[in-house]
Amino acid sequence: MPELKWVKSSHSEASGNACVEIAEFGNLIAVRDSKDPELAMATVGLAAWVQFTGALAKGRMT
């Protein structure tokens, strides 16, 4: 597996209680908890990720 370039969510809390990082991996998005990066990551298809983040941006998910 190639080295992934992880990016912390702009909505992560400064206190460190809710920290999510994502990385692009081909047609997948990898998601992990930045507080414990050694834990397993989750992956989701790019199209599903775009739908998910679009719904969040429109306030459809809380």
SSE arrangement:
Blueprint: E1 7-8, E2 20-25, E3 28-33, E4 42-45, H1 46-57
Antiparallel strand pairs: 1-2, 2-3, 3-4
Low-pLDDT runs: none
Discrete helix count = 1
Helix content: 10-25%
Can you tell me the overall shape? Answer: flat
Major β-sheet, in short?
A: 4 strands, antiparallel
Q: What separation lies between the terminal Cα atoms?
A: 34 Å
Strand content: 25-35%
How does this model look, in words?
The chain is of the alpha+beta class. About 20% of the residues lie in helices and about 30% in strands. The protein is built from 1 helix and 4 strands; from the N terminus they run E-E-E-E-H. It has one helix at about 45-55, and strands at about 5-10, 20-25, 30-35, 40-45. The chain has a 4-stranded antiparallel sheet. The longest helix has 12 residues, at about 45-55. The protein starts with 6 loop residues before the first strand and ends in a 5-residue tail after the last helix. The model has no long low-confidence stretch (mean pLDDT about 85).
Give a quick precis of the structure.
The chain has 62 residues and is of the alpha+beta class.
Features:
single chain; 62 residues; alpha+beta; 1 helix; 4 strands
